[in-house]
Design a protein that fits this description.
10 strands, 10% helix, 5-stranded antiparallel sheet, globular, mainly beta, Metal Binding Protein, Guanine Nucleotide Exchange Factor, Chain A
């Protein structure tokens, strides 16, 4: 633990080629977005400022997919296909880590909050603070 407020969580893709760590509370709040991408992949968003995310290995294993506005950088392991994290359109100054890709042992509690992509502007405004340092 770095201090009372944050814990270093580690995680990665299914095959283990991509590994990362992220500083966040041990009790995390994640977003369950209903957009087509998140709904189809089951992604649970733990959004953090870029300074709290570190790619430990696997930069060479990542491939990128962009669609719609092209602002979001969806990053997948090109070997196993898992998207463990990405740069979201709503928070281009941060990362969204898939809470389902975190290793066990450091998350004490997870609270899931709905993110309504049908009202993207209001939903994004409500969480704007998440990627700020």
């Amino acid at each position: 633990m770095r201090d009372d407020a944050t814990t270093t969580h580690r995680g990665g893709c299914h095959c283990g080629r991509v590994r990362f760590e992220v500083d966040a509370p041990s009790r995390i709040e994640v977003l369950d977005c209903n957009c087509s991408m998140c709904r189809m992949t089951g992604f649970l968003h733990l959004i953090v400022p870029a300074a709290r995310f570190r790619l430990l290995q696997g930069a060479d294993a990542l491939t990128e997919y962009r669609f719609n506005t092209g602002a979001a950088r969806h990053l997948f392991c090109r070997h196993c296909g898992i998207k463990a994290f990405y740069v979201p359109r709503s928070h281009p100054d941060g990362y969204s880590v898939n809470a389902r890709c975190l290793d066990t042992g450091t998350v004490v509690e997870t609270t899931i909050v709905a993110f309504d992509d049908n009202d993207r502007d209001a939903a994004t405004a409500a969480i704007a603070h998440l990627s700020k340092g």
